[in-house]
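Why run this: before we spend reagent on co-expression, it is cheaper to look at a predicted model of the complex and decide which construct boundaries make sense. The entries below are exactly what would go into the expression plan.
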Amino acid sequence: MEKMIIQVINPNTSGAMTETIAHAARGAAAAGTEIIAVSPSQGVPSIEGHFDEAIATLGVLEQIKYGREQGVNGHVIACFGDPGLLAARELAEGPVVGIAEAAMHMATLVATRFSVITTLPRTLIIARHLVQQYGFGHHCAALHAIDMPVLALEDGSGMAQEKVRARCIHAMREDHCGAIVLGCGGMATLAQTLTRELGLPVIDGVGAAVKMVESLVSLGLTTSKHGDLNYPIQKTITGAFQHLN
Ligand code: 2AL
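The model came back. Tokens follow.
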């Protein structure tokens, strides 16, 4: 394959965060990979709880549908709750990788145990559930929150970034972990600097997911349509959701 197109979906509607995610995705992508970074046409500006996730999921599905219609080779869901991941796989033809699953998988390839750094404390349970769901319970040393909202990462002050750095140093000292997973799409551009500064792998899920989609597409692997990830059963969707038909 000469050229590959990967659609990277920021599930929230923050344009600044879509730019941050796009920058990290392009930094990780191979020379022949084009990154199309998108966000939903409607939804929530940041995802910080179960309610936000439920709304964001519909936006993710809308974008997966558009991406598939455009003929992209694969998709990344760039929010650490991996909202709508399995539903997205039903709709998609190419591979769909979430940034939480990508980062956790990558972490276990370079370390025995990892710690996760997220934003608000109420998002900790979302990450904890994913750790269990993905089967990484024995690999996760601890989960920490910087206690700042998602969009503080985009306010230009650098305060949230400084808190992430401080929490990483704390986790490295206290958790006996070999790697740190950054638990928000808005933290994506911090991974390389922190990896160098701290001397342990600090993993950004956006870059990790882009590399995983590239690998799957290069290997000729698409989302299985044998079984539960088959295309959704055709039915007429009505009202506000009819654009998903
Ligand atoms: C996130 C994320 O990655 N994007 C968003 O809006 N919320 N995750 C988080 N832990 O706060």
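The first strand starts at residue 4 and ends at 9. The chain has two domains: 4-98+207-244, 100-204. Bring this page to Monday's planning discussion.
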